Every structure is written in C-alpha cells, then in structure tokens.
Amino acid sequence: xxxxxxxxEKYRPTKFEEMVGQNEIIKRVKSLVQAMNIPHFLFAGPAGxxxxxxxxxxxxxxxxxxxxxxxxxxxxxxxxxxxxxxxxVKDFARTMALENVPFKVIFLDEADALTKEAQQALxxxxxxxxxxxxxxxxxxxxxxIIEPIQSxxxxxxxxxxxxxxxxxxxxxxxxxxxxxLSDEAFESLYEASExxxxxxxxxxxxxxxxxxxxxxxxxxxxxxxxxPKDIRVVLDYALAGDFENAREKLLDxxxxxxxxxxxxxxxxxxxIWNLQxxxxxxxxxxxxxxxxxxxxxxxxxxxxxxxxxxxxFVLAGQGKN
Amino acid sequence: xxxSEKYRIKKFSEAVERDKEIAEIKKFLNDFPKKKALILYGPAGxxxxxxxxxxxxxxxxxxxxxxxxxxxxxxxLEARLKPATEQQALFKKSKxxxxxxxxxxxxxxxxGGIQELVRLIVTTKYPIIMTCNDVWQLKFSQLRQKAxxxxxxxxxxxxxxxxxxxxxEKEGIRSGNDFLKxxxxxxxxxxxxxxxxxxxxxxxxxIEIDMQEKRDVEESIFNILRxxxxxxxxxxxxxxxxxxxxxxxxxxxxxxIPKEYKNIALAKAYYALGNADVFRGRIYRNQSWxxxxxxxxxxxxxxxxxxxxxxxxTFTKYERPRRILKIWMHNQKIEKRKTISKKxxxxxxxxxxxxxRDFNLLKPIINQEDVQKKLRLSEEEIDxxxxx
Lengths: 321, 388
Description:
The structure holds two protein chains of two kinds. In chain A, about 55% of the residues lie in helices and about 10% in strands. Chain A has 15 helices and seven strands.
C-alpha cells in the first residue's frame, strides 16, 4: 500500500490476489505473466472496473522493483495527437529492457479516444516495436478500436463491479480509516457510484472530509456535485419561451463545470423524460436531440448546435414542433 | 482608358497635398534596408497605389506588382515572389515590389499569405511597398512591426476641386464650377471616385447629381445585421462589403438572432446557422474550401428567409458577440484548475479530462496538506484551491 492520502491510490491493489472481481480475467492474465511472456493486451470495459490497476500489477509482477524503468503510461485523450504518442513510444522503446524480461510495457489508456486514422498509425508503431515492447491498451468500448489492432491483441472484457465487490472494497477502507457507514449510506454510495469503483472511493473520501459518521444524505449532496446541475433550469427557461436566459445559463453551466457539448447533450436527452410536457412532445424533442448530437460530430462549434436545440425547446413549450 | 487612369500622377511633383508623405517615402527608400517594407494605408482614392508606382518611376526602378487576387495560397505567393526578392533585376536595375490591397489577403482563402509576406520581408533584397485600407486589423499585427507605416488621409475638398478643374479643362468638359464642386463634395475625399463621377456625368452634365447615392463602401456589421434580420431576401453577396470573416460574422449572427426572431423563425434561423456550422466543420476537417459557398448561403439567405415576412424597419440595438470573451475570461479564471488537474491526473493514472469533470468532488481530496506537497502544487494553485 502506498503512503498517500489519496485513497484511490492508497487502496489500489498491487498484487493479483488483492484484486476484487474480474476473477476469470485475473486468472488468465496471471498465468500469462508467470510465463514471463505476454502478448499485447486490450482491456475493454467501463470506468473504474480495474483496467489500469491490472496493467500496473502486470508490470510489477514482470519487472519487480524496477517496474518504473520499464513501463510507460500514456493517456490518449490527453496527448496532443498521434505524433506525440509515436514520439514518446519511440523514445521509450529505443533502449533495451532492464531485468531479465526481453521487453518493456506501454500502457495506452483511453485508446478509443484516438481517431481511426490515428489508430492506423498506432498499429504501425505497435508492429515496429513489437520485438522490444508490449502494449496494453485500454478502452471503454472495444468496438471503437479498429479491427487490425483488435486482432493483434488478446482482448479482456471487464464487467461492472457487482454490489458485493464494491461493498468488500468500501468495507476495507471504512475499517482502516475508522469511518462509520450505515447500510443505508452504503446503498446511496453504491447507487451514486454507478458501479465505478474509483468514483465510489472518491465519493467516500470527499464525504469523510465533512464527517467520519457518514449518512446517506451526505452522500447524495456530495454526489450531486459532479452531475451537470441546473440543466432543468435551462430547459425550463426555454420551454417558457425565454431563449436568451436559457442559453446564458447553458453556457455558464458548461464553463463552470467543464462539460463538453456532447456530454451536455447526453444530459439533456436524459432530462427530457423528467419534463412536464406531453409524451408525444418528448419523443419529438428526443428526435431533435438525436439529430443535433449527430450534427455536432460534423460541425465545428457545439454551442451553435446546442442553441439550435434550445430553439426547438422554445417551440415545444408552445405545443408546436 | 478611364480618366482616373489617364490622370494618374507620374511624378511626385504632380501630387497635391502629399508633401509630408512623399518626404517620408523618399526617406524610406534612402534608408533601405533599415526598414525593408512600407505600408501606405488610408481610404480609397487617396493615392496609395499612385505614390507607390511613382516611387519606382522617379528612381528608375523596375516595379513588380502583385494584387491580392493573384495570391491564392502560400505556395503561389512564394513561387512568384521568392525569385524576385532574391535575383538581380534585369540590366542591374533595382526594383520595388508592390503588394497592392493586402486587405484582400485573408486568413482563409490565402492560407498563410500574411505569414509568407512577413517571412519575405525578412529575406528580401528589394524594398516592398504594401497598400491597404485598414492597417489596424488584427491579422496585420506582425506586418505592422516589420514595416514603416504612412497614413494617407482623404484629400481636402479644395484639393479635389482644383484637380477636377484642371482635368475638365484638358478634357474640354464644359461644366460649371458648381457642378464640379458638387462632384467634389460627393466624393468625400476619394479622388478616384471624383474623377470617375466627372467622367460619367460629363456626357450629360445637366442632370442632377444624386447626392444620396452611395458608393460601394465598406458597411458596418450593424448595417449588415440590419439588412439580414429586417429584410426578407435571398441574400448571397451581403457579406462582400465587410472585412469580417464568415466565422466572425457567424458569431455576430448567433448573438443577435433572439433580438429579432421569435418562435418558429428563431428555430429556423438557428437551424440554418447549424447548417452553416456543419459545412464549416467539413471545411476544417477536410480542407474542402469549396464548402465556403454553402456556409455563406446558410448564414446569409438561410437566416434572412427564416422569417415569413419583412420586419418593420424599427431600430434594434445589436450586441457584440459575447460568448468568446466570456469563454476567454472563464479560462483565465480556471487556468489553475487545469494545471492542478494535470498534476493530479498523472498521479492517479487517469486522464486530465476526467479529473476536470470531477474536480468539485476531488477538491477536498487534493486540498490536503500532504497531497498538495506530493503533487508539488505551487502557492498560487493552493491559493486557488482555498478560494474556490
């Protein structure tokens, strides 16, 4: 256990045996690692299910103490394009691996953030350095990874952690940190985490900074911090015909909470079903929302497309479509 | 040949009201290569091109003239200009490179044109003279630093009047002084316009001069928005008379649609603007500049025809686009949030984007003393955490 007050790190498993859930995957990865020769891996699955953790355990097992020298972690959604990725891979792969393993390991997180073209380039890079490097790619959906890369990797599909798994992890933390967490509060925590273990732990720690005796109300207050708030307010303004206030509020929310246009439109799509309007209109608005989301992909300015959607809500507010 | 071409000055001494400016031009040519480029700027018909050409004639230099319309992109500019700036002129004559009307070199159609000009100024062996109407545009900021600037103000009424009298005399146009004075007044300091008017009216000089009739001058964005929103017309060339780019105009339209349109017109207008944006996205992604035509049509005709009838010509107070400024100000404010997230992300094997999204939740976790230390947060960053 590392000596830090960031619980997601402090309680991150460092051995295969400490992992909770994903039993089949762990068994298979472990046997590959023990043979000291791994193929490329593709870890697919939702956030907070153990992909990064398993990658870290893999390199620790392979390289022991010297794992840091033989391991490169990149996040595709943060790097400024495939050229940067390639350069970093090249610099890293140039030298021989230390210890008695003949290769190094590159972990490319959120590989599905790369465009198809970038993935083609990545595939070349994987081939060029396959003698000296193994890749572990992670993604949410393996369907977003191009076929040639998938075929070069052994794919593991991570499932959402079950409630009992999350409970096991949370219990370990509450005992070690001397927290009080009622069953009811755990239910709220699990619900707010949506099966994402990282999120569950972060929620727990953030709430513990208020009190060591955690109630289900505290969890729901803290949990709502990260949801796009006030979307309802935006839509209510629009339905009441006040376009200008609606878009002002929309921009404020997007800026203050760093929400992208695509995330915003997903949130709007969900909120439609909570509105007090005719069901037929809800279907119509969903159709508009879908169309606008599609146009965002082709367009260059999400906010212009969102305004177009708000204008549709103004019409819906008057029973028109 | 038009009269305005025929009576273009051929010597500095023929120019009227330009003594100071001519002295400055001569100084520029003498001091070359102290400053390598000169920008003559001012409204139309103030002698920018004429003085540039005379600068060459008086010194017996060759002149290599390029119009903005000759340039489509960096390659063609480079191909034409680079040999010229590097080779010796024929018969060992020196030369002047004239880049006329650089207002027309835009960021979009003449990709890289301005940057290429800046680069050429650095390497040129011959003086470069450029002309433009508005030297204070943002895109010229680099050029301004590299070049000497000379402003040409509109000519006085008397100057234009005296020139018109001379030309009328030589051409045998027997019109009264009153007529010439009216032509001069109407020109508003634009000599070329005055001479053109003289030519067109002189055939039947007894007709009344329409003082209301405006020349094709640059229109303010406010006028353009007025036409777009009040009239219902399939506008296509509405944006030709402004220096603003289509993208800038799009922001103006976006800001002001709700001031004019309600309900169905509002929805239709934003839909049209969305269409324009879709084509803009395709231009950016594939460099298919041809799609500019579609962007233009959707954001002009598309917006104007979104309503079912003309709007009454009442006054509407249009606003400057506020969104970009707001985003910029916000980014200044949360700059620290980004740098903190970046440091934290590396530590917890996660993307910066995801940390940014959960920033509010993570704040109490990051804002612990030993975590601050571990992440090596700066004092400003810690300050930010405590204040927000």
